Amino acid sequence: MRNIMRKEIRLSSSPLAFLFIAFGLLFFLPGYPILCGVFFTTLGLFQSFQAAREANDTVFSALLPIAKRDVVKGRFLFVCFIELCALVLMLVAVIVRMTVLAEAAPYTANALMNANPFALGAALFIFGLFNRIFVSGFYKTAYKIGRPFVAYIIAAFLAILVFEALHHIPGLGALNAFGTDHLGLQLAALAAGIAVYALLTAWAYRAACRRFEKIDL
Amino acid sequence: MSVVEVRGLMKKYPSFELKEASFTVDAGRITGFIGRNGAGKTTTIKSMLNLVHPDGGSVLYFGKPLLGNETEIKKHIGYSTGVVNWYPRKKIRSIVDIVKRFYDTWDEEAYRKYTELFQLDDAKTPLELSEGMKVKFNLLMALSHRAEVLILDEPTSGLDPFSRNELLDVFGELKKDGVAVFFSTHIISDIEKCADDIVYISRGRIAAATSREDFTARFSAPGETLEDTMLRMERGEGHA
Asked: Looking at the 3D structure of chain A, how many domains does it have?
């Protein structure tokens, strides 16, 4: 698996996939829909799929002495690696905003979603959508990227809209907690995000393997 | 000894059908896979490598089916297809550096030998190579991991006559080492120069799969060249 990851990083990927990890730092921005940072990270991954397709990466990989499902596994590992790198930056932003900057004026006056564990859970949910809708959708043909990406964009922005709106609904204000307020609820939301991400990714991987076995390269 | 057995391989496309292709490829022999453009050579080869999903039939390597033994079998196979731009902007040596890690049997000496023979500068990117050099780059990777079976799709297409001769000489050397070479071509003179066996495909059907001597005895008129025989067969003029 190490060899496949090395191939993904050194041959298949676009530098933008690594550069766009930095969009995880949008979690520091007050007055900004921070979940857009998640979308921008996946935009870098989309660029990577495009670069790989133009380099005939799928056929090249299928010819290596690995099973066809390992070609899919390599791509999923790379995607999850980038997503989790971005998540680490988001986590740093969340910790800083929950602790040393908890009382900072730009954050306390923030009308939009706060960077807290619930936001991390929401980020994981959107990454899960990317894996299920785009990555798995790509393996229906292993070359068409437009349609699954448009489907993902619609789902991602609907999700961002819903997550941004939730804390305005009476009774759900705790989702936008500052600092360590409502920590139990916040951590439960994060745990739910982790579970949904794991489920969507596992589902996406299985569907992608099944689809990739059937297509002609 | 047969190292590859293709049994009743079928693939149906809307405008083309590969009809129950069956043949074998033997160790220490060169098998030429011949047929005109669109006859089904690439479909057969891709089906043999599980790049195309066949509708029926099976492919056995070293007596084992490819499906279920893909990882192990692929380590012993070298595959090259004509002009394909793999990672056009990466240096050849960077691509090779990744590829060789997948093979326990990677032979650095063979890699250097073929790099020199093909006069390939591995500091270049595939984008900087001519079409013929791209073919050589593909061949280089197929030849550098001591494969026991080489499956080459149109390896001589796009090569100049000198390079073609060199390549056919390489096939001869590999044959002496017991390697099974299976190569597709529509250039009949390549078959005449080096093939021990012929698999002839016409309109998606294997019309003949036999030794070159037997092929000539069965299908050629006295004094007729292999090229004349095949042209006559393609025109549907029957046996000599």
From this structure: 1
Residue B149 at interface with chain A, using a CB cutoff of 8 Å: no
pLDDT digits (tens, 9 = 90+) for B68-105: 899 999 999 988 886 678 999 999 999 999 999 999 99
Contacts of residue B102 in chain A, CB cutoff 8 Å?
3, 64-66
Q: What is the rounded end-to-end Cα distance, in angstroms, of chain B?
A: 31
More confident residue, A8 or B133: A8
Q: What is the nearest CA distance from A65 to chain B, expressed in angstroms?
A: 5
Determine the pLDDT at residue B85. Answer: 80
Is B71 within 8 Å of A70 when comparing Cβ atoms?
Answer: yes
Pairwise CB contact (< 8 Å): A55 & B52? no
Q: What is the pLDDT of residues A97-134, one digit of tens each?
A: 989 998 888 888 888 999 999 999 999 999 999 999 99
β-bridge partners, B2: B26
Q: What is the per-residue pLDDT for B83?
A: 66
CA dihedral A13, A19, A24, A25 (to 10 degrees): 170
**B205, B197 Cβ separation under 8 angstroms:** no
Domain that holds residue A126: 2-214
Say if residues B134 and B84 touch (Cβ distance below 8 Å).
yes
Interface contact A63, partner B, CB < 8 A: yes
Q: Which residues 6+ apart lie within 8 Å of A184 measured at CB?
A: none
**Which residue in the set A6, A56, A70 is minimally distant from B86, CB to CB?**
A56
A201 compared with B191, residue with greater pLDDT? A201
* pTM: predicted TM-score of the whole model, two decimal places: 0.90
Check B74 against A215: CB less than 8 A apart: no
- Using pLDDT thresholds of 50, 70 and 90, give the confidence band for residue B238: low
Mutation target among B18, B47, B51, B146 for the A interface, most CBs of A within 10 A: B51
Question: Whole-number mean pLDDT of chain A?
Answer: 94
Output the CA angle A162-A166-A172, nearest 5 degrees.
160
Q: Beta B56-61 vs B197-202: how paired, if at all?
A: unpaired
Interface residue B74 vs chain A (CB under 8 A): yes
Question: Which residue(s) pair with B63 in the sheet?
Answer: none
Q: What are phi and psi of B57, to 5 degrees?
A: 90, 180
> Is B15 near chain A, with CB under 8 Å?
no
Which residue of B lies nearest to A71 if distances are taken between CA atoms? B71
Nearest CA in chain A to B79: A63
**Residue in A55, A65, A70 nearest the CB of B103:** A65
Do the Cβ atoms of B182 and B151 come closer than 8 Å? yes
What percentage of chain A exceeds 90 in pLDDT? Answer: 83
